[in-house]
Amino acid sequence: MAATALHFHRAAFLSPAHPRDAGAKWPLHHCSPHRIPVARRACFLRAKSLNGRPQIGASFGNTNEVRDGRPAGDGPQKEKGGSTVSITVVGASGDLAKKKIFPALFALFYEDCLPEHFTVFGYARSKMSDEELRNLISTTLTCRIDKRENCGDKMGQFLQRCFYQSGQYNSEEGFAELDRKLKEKEAGKLPNRLFYLSIPPNIFVDVVRSASRTASSSSGWTRFIVEKPFGRDSESSGQLTRSLKKYLAEEQIFRIDHYLGKELVENLSVLRFSNLVFEPLWSRNYIRNVQLIFSEDFGTEGRGGYFDNYGIIRDIMQNHLVQILALFAMETPVSLDAEDIRNEKVKVLRSMRPLKLDDVVVGQYKGHTRAGRSFPGYADDPTVPNGSVTPTFAAAALFIDNARWDGVPFLMKAGKALHTRRAEIRVQFRRVPGNLYRRNIGTDLDKATNELVLRVQPDEAIYLKINNKVPGLGMRLDRSNLNLLYSERYRGEIPDAYERLLLDAIEGERRLFIRSDELDAAWAIFTPVLRELEEKRVAPELYPYGSRGPVGAHYLAANYNVRWGDVNIDDDGSLF
Amino acid sequence: MALSCMRCPAGAAAASAPRAAAVGPAPAAAVSFTRCGFRRSAAAAAGCWRIQAVAPQGVKSPIDADVKNAVSPIAPPNVENGSPSEITLDEFEDLSALSKNDDSTVSITVVGASGDLAKKKIFPALFALYYEDCLPKACQYDSEEHFIDLDKKLKQHEGSRVSNRLFYLSIPPNIFLDVVKCASKSASSVNGWTRVIVEKPFGRDSESSAALTRGLKQYLVEDQIFRIDHYLGKELVENLSVLRFSNLVFEPLWSRQYIRNVQLIFSEDFGTEGRGGYFDSYGIIRDIMQNHLLQILALFAMETPISLEAEDIRNEKVKVLRSMKPLQLEDVVIGQYKSHTKGGTTYPGYTDDKTVPKDSVTPTFAAAALFINNARWDGVPFLMKAGKALHTKRAEIRVQFRHVPGNLYKGSFGTDLDRATNELVIRVQPDEAIYLKINNKIPGLGMRLDRSNLNLHYAARYSKEIPDAYERLLLDAIEGERRLFIRSDELDAAWSLFTPLLKELEEKRIAPELYPYGSRGPVGAHYLAAKYNVRWGDLSAEHYKA
Predict the structure, then answer these.
(1) Of B337, B390, B379, residue with least CA distance to B539
(2) Which candidate in B292, B403, B526, B543 is catalytic?
(3) Partner-chain contact A336 B408, CB within 8 Å
(4) Which position among A34, A320, A419, A554 bears the catalytic label?
(5) How many Cβ atoms are within 10 Å of A51's Cβ, its own excluded?
(6) Does the keyword Oxidoreductase apply (chain B) (predicted)?
(7) Is B208 helix (H, G, I), strand (E, B) or coil?
(8) pLDDT value at B282 more than 60
């Protein structure tokens, strides 16, 4: 079965390279919010062009059969021979499904990025009619601000393709019933099926077993998107992977890390590899340290039950931040093909030293009253056990022991209930050796170094801090930014990370999904320290809700002669 | 003038002041100029600042006309904003304290006070410096027909203080030597320094330039000669070295390994407008390239100096210039603007200028490719372009980087990888800015790449007015900072690059390619660039849109 899926996947993947498309003019211009309605097929050219694969599609004799787009004309009878995609959201009544997955699917539909023929199914335990599901999700669908026309019509069309099936998560009968309904909707076309598991991790395996056995596509591909947590340490993660692999081949597993779908994370590789001015600087020769910073300005707010079992290190660092780190630090891949990129990421992860307790600072937010308003502490959350030492903040220093990065500290910081909501990558460069202007800089040369900042959210931006002369007769130096503020240059909304990732999964583009060996390598870095923190019940440093986090983070940075770039006065003008 | 005097509330009013009010003998001019500073402190000004106009020996023009020209921009008869009674106590004390301090004094003599440059740049710059408290203690500007008398007058003002004297020669080159001779013999300071600022042209080729230098050196030592190149006083030219040497991210890229070509571009959007007489005997290559653009090139390309000391920097600049190949005729394109009618207005051609000979082949536009034969720059074309009567007024440095070797995203760029390279632009004027063109992904689900700018727009970041180049240079001369002035050996090296070409152009009377007034210049410039596989950055498609 795995072989079948793989075969058809490849065919579908390469289909745009069919000679018929040879003259197509839009190798990369698809689904961009700036394009006015594109030909539907354009969305599917993307993966190919991206990967720059040789155009060998012609050698697949049956590519026509698995074409995702319509051949020519729109008549329903002509679609008979085409293919169809069914997207089943398992756990359809959950928060993520409602807030992210259905809206992302609708956005893709609106942008003409979904195949001509598709079906969306919700699957959950509760009894619900199709109509009730439609009512449920219609409340969260939105049109892009800049594309309101036809929005209502489009929404109606989309909802008409949404259906619901109730059933137990471990019940093969439930999925068999789903399979029956899916077949009905697929109407004899080549069926491709995508399952999105938006469910708690303890039932992952049950669902995968039941669904793969009874609701796999008979002749097209079947793929499963799974969301974190992927276990809670090396062992449990390894076990989960082994279980999944009992039912699925590696190619069928799409482990999503939605940070990898963020615009500026996508742009990171573009910046590095398509600009001559950055790559020569991308090593220990020029880079003094790299900072990966994530902060939320709210706490668990009554939903601490799940979080308490994981903590911020597992929730943010081990996946999102370490993934960005790997993309940042990897060697140049052979190509932009998913496997080539993931090979390089694994190499970086495997070159990293496991994190040591000395290199970690943990914190937990406490209640804080400001301007008459009280913000509850983490332990005040009724769903959090009393005496919890789960970190809601962590800072860590990591090292990559390879030729490029030896000795360069990669500092991570992640926290909830901080003063701001932000995700960014900061690259601090070394100081200028033998700086001619040292007298103008003052005693601490490290304070006048260049810094490249990629702000992932909010307000996507790239800026490079440079030293320049303050205009005037004297010779005063100043740090200014060479700026690219996305909102100023690009009108139109930046698509949500889930849109990109769902589209990638449908297209079989695995670049932004995490392979099993990547996951293993990521866990290997964090598992020892997580264990030690828990065994020793290391008490987190408390910090007030809405503050800049525990001061311990500064001492950790100071250990490595680093200064956090996000708390400098010149960045936001004031200190909390 | 407006630029500098805007700092002085009354100065702004001065611009619109009736011209007639300024007519008068030299001392009146002095008072007027003083008045501009007077806003800050009545007492100090009255006691300490006396400014007079000079009609130097050898200049025959009527003195009252001179005075009128020199003075009118800075003579506000009416005080609109602020009057002596409005000064604060602090300001008063500030200034009176200054006037009491009497250990040394600087006398600045502007020789050729009636000229255009003096009127438009030097006096306003001096005033601006005074207004910003950048000038030492006291300043006198004296008028004399004879330098002995000038000396007497200066002594009178200097009193017992150490006297430092700065002569600014704002005069035609043919009387440089006469003035220097008189000034140095009869009006040199006995106990302080004496410096002479000279403006271009410094000769018209290697020989005449060397003769001039030899002439100057009969009366002055190298340290006393301040050859001004006002482009070196521009803010972003000053900033060039700061960018290179105080940022880690630029210096590693500063070589043939990463830089594909460098472009130095100067354009004016007006022609000679009836003043072509002087220009016609020089042409754009001497007027702009051999000095301004070449100086910027040297600063751009020099090796890291040992320190920021003037001699260390100038040593490095000379090394670059001496490593350069003399310019070849086939690496030059010249042009001359012709008249053009647009929107009902007719703009005259260069030869329509009454002061220009009808058959003149003097270039008003030139483009050139230069090469530096050293380890850092071997093979990198340095393209220069300078022209009058073009579509825009602009001076900028563009650094085009090589394409990314083995670019992973080559599929996204189309066939010409060189069109998607990084480019660093330093815009010297107008609207000072630095930007780096980078490739980034267009937000959205596809993978379309785009060239965007990482920007630093000066006007957006710095609200303060950027000082005029002359202010900086005058202050430097007063302070003895020689970094931005051109040493004799630099000048020699610069001339030796251009002299053979200039001779050949003139001997062969090479006809310039005509281009319409207000156009983008002769297309020949594109072919010259194409020869070295370069594309002018200022005329690329993305700019046409704007």
Answers:
(1) B390
(2) B292
(3) yes
(4) A320
(5) 20
(6) yes
(7) helix
(8) yes
Instruction: Mark which residues 477-496 of A lie under 8 Å from B by CB.
Output: 477, 480-484, 486, 489-490, 492, 494-495
Q: Which residue has the higher pLDDT, B35 or A34?
A: A34
Across B56-76, average pLDDT: 33
pLDDT at A63: 32
pLDDT, residue A29, reads 32
Low-confidence ranges of chain A (pLDDT < 70): 1-81, 144-148, 443, 445, 568-576
Residue B207 pLDDT: 96
Q: Is A68 on the interface with B (CB under 8 A)?
A: no
Q: Are B288 and B386 in contact (CB under 8 A)?
A: yes
Nearest chain B residue to A501, by CA = B445
CA distance A278 to chain B (A): 8
Distant-in-sequence, close-in-space partners of B140: CB < 8 Å, separation ≥ 6: B50, B51, B52, B105, B107, B108, B153, B154, B157, B158
CA of B346 vs chain A CAs: smallest distance (Å): 39
Min Cα separation B4/chain A (Å): 13
Considering only CB atoms, which chain A residues are within 8 Å of B456? Answer: 466, 468, 480-483
The most distant pair of C-alpha atoms in chain B lies apart, rounded to whole Å, by: 80
Condensed to tens digits (0 to 9), the pLDDT of residues B348-365 reads 999 999 999 999 999 999
Whether A274 sits inside 8 A of B258 (CB atoms) is no
The pLDDT of residue B134 = 54
Q: B411 to chain A nearest CA, in Å?
A: 7
Q: Do A286 and B249 touch (CB under 8 A)?
A: yes
In CATH, the number for domain B27-32+104-229 is: 3.40.50.720
Report phi then psi at B196, rounded to 5: -125, 120
Cα–Cα distance between B52 and B46 in angstroms, integer? 14
Phi, psi of A258 (to 5 degrees): -65, -15
Pairing of strands B365-370, B332-338: antiparallel
Amino acid (one-letter) located at A33: P
Q: What is the pLDDT of residue B477?
A: 83
Q: Which CATH class is domain A260-495+515-560?
A: alpha beta
Q: Where are the domains of chain A?
A: 83-227, 260-495+515-560
**Domain A83-227 in CATH 3.40.50.2300:** no
CA distance B168 to A283: 52
Contact list, A46 vs chain B (CB under 8 Å): 445-447
> Does B411 sit within 8 Å of A27, measured CB to CB?
yes
- Under 8 Å CB pairs connecting chains A and B tally to 212
In sequence order, what are the beta bridge partners of B394?
B267
What residue of B is the nearest CA neighbor of A32?
B444
Weakest-pLDDT range from A545-559, B64-78, B215-229: B64-78
Residues of B in contact with A34 (CB under 8 A): 442, 444
pLDDT of res. A33: 37
Annotation says B292 is catalytic: yes
CB contact under 8 A, B456 and A440: no
Interchain pair A32, B406: CB under 8 A = no
- Which of A222-236, B25-39, B66-80 bottoms out in mean pLDDT, i.e. has the lowest? B25-39
The reply to whether residue A466 touches residue B253, judged by beta carbons under 8 angstroms, is: no
pLDDT band for B45, please (50, 70, 90 cuts): very low
pLDDT at B284 over 80: yes
CA–CA separation, A479 and A457 (whole Å): 23
CATH of B235-467+488-531, one of 3.30.200.20, 3.20.20.70, 3.30.360.10, 3.90.1150.10: 3.30.360.10
For the cut 90, the answer to whether the pLDDT of residue B70 exceeds it is: no
Nearest CA to B143 among B73, B56, B208, B22?
Answer: B56
Q: Domain ranges in chain B?
A: 27-32+104-229, 235-467+488-531
Q: Which residue has the higher pLDDT, B221 or B461?
A: B221
